[in-house]
Amino acid sequence: MKKKNIFKLNSVVLVFLLAACNSSSSTFESSDVEANNENSEEGVIIAETKESLGEKLFKDSELSRNGNQSCATCHNPDHAFIDDRINASSVDTTTPGAVSLGQDDLSLGDRNTPTAAYAAFGPDFHFNQEEGLFMGGQFLDGREPDLQGQAGQPFLNPVEMQTTKADVVSKVENKYGDAMRHLYGEQIFDTVDSAYDAITESIGAFEETDVFAPFDSKFDKVLQGEAAFTEEEQQGFVLYVLKRKGNCAACHPVPTALSEEHESVFTDFTYDNLGVPVNHLARSVNGKEKDFVDNGLFDNPAVDDPSLKGAFRVTGLRNMAVTGPYMHNGVFKDLKTVVHFYNTRDVDGAINPETGEEWQPSEVEVTKNTEELGNLGLTDAEEDAIVAFLKTLTDSRYEHLIP
Ligand code: HEC
Ligand code: HEC
User: Fold this and answer.
1) Model-level pTM?
2) pLDDT tens digits for 78-105?
3) Measured between alpha carbons, how far apart are the two ends of the chain, in Å?
4) Best probe residue, ligand 1, of 106, 134, 160 (max atoms within 8 Å of C-beta)
């Protein structure tokens, strides 16, 4: 996102409110991005911003087909913008579903809902010639280049909000017509497509605000010299970075105090096949055919290299302690299991602590990365230390959710 920030809005009220939110409130009240629509001139409401309108659209359940699901249903602002609802794909009664329930309360997806926090920092989807790698994009396979493109999909997705462009546009015109015309021009409702594009742009603008990216975790405070790691966190940090130990930073790089924001989300935005096991529970309840394979990046229409089958975008790690279950299919419940998987995937007889059985093969075995993970030789205490370090990446307003 390269710091496209709210200060451009020349709205002192907005800047003030955001500053106030970021510093103190730990729970997310509606209107974190409040428009200056209190500023009325002769009783006429003026100046909703794209961001403040986007916030309303993001949270408006009426825009789904039957009026009961918004973006915020699956990206809950009070829970690090993940779907924290329990459903048939939950491994137990306290773990959010591995996959999400659609607005019909029946349909289930096949991928774990990622956090929408810090999503704005990913570069647009592209092939990096220098590295010879695909990078960036939205969704775990990068199939939408940017936030606006991404925001156009959930409304139409047959297992999510299940509606049509025309329906969304007509509901938005009824409720937010004046604000839309004010922001995008009198002609904005002349075609469904132009109005729909404005709606998704506005949602994308909201997702670019600091509400999604406070950068105020303990880690950030340590970086600024305002806090100190415990001994275990410090040890975890070192293990995380060291190549012959955790080697995590090879794909999830660690920022320094001088890094730009887009370099500070603990991902290099590339794609990799880690050999994550199939989530049989999710598949048994979501109705996918027996032979269905999630090829990840390879299913992106821009990609035709079969060696990229089963690759998913390297996840940013901010707020990881509170966004379980993990991996593209939500197959692991605990963060410690993720670390144990990296550590022992290729060790003979190693056990998945959540199933009591050996690690199961992934969907696409042939392309999995065997060079950077699989047998790290970490002790149990070292795994714990890495988890302790990962917990320091939690934004302050979500710290109370750390298990
Ligand atoms: C039914 C649950 C559900 C709803 C509703 C939903 N999403 Fe998502 N969202 C998901 C899932 C699942 C993915 C990952 C899908 C994939 O990779 O194929 C996702 C991915 C994303 C991403 C990309 C994150 C990343 O790391 O690539 C963003 C941003 C996002 N959603 C924003 C939104 C917005 C904006 C809306 C409303 C217009 C919305 N979502 C509605 C479940 C949902
Ligand atoms: C070779 C690159 C690579 C290395 C090395 C690596 N990761 Fe990852 N990481 C990924 C990719 C790719 C994903 C997404 C995989 C998927 O969902 O299939 C991921 C996902 C994760 C997730 C889950 C995120 C989520 O939202 O579900 C966590 C947590 C994580 N990594 C932590 C670590 C830690 C800790 C280490 C070091 C022990 C590490 N990673 C090493 C590439 C890597």
Assistant:
1) 0.91
2) 999 999 999 999 999 999 999 999 999 9
3) 31
4) 160
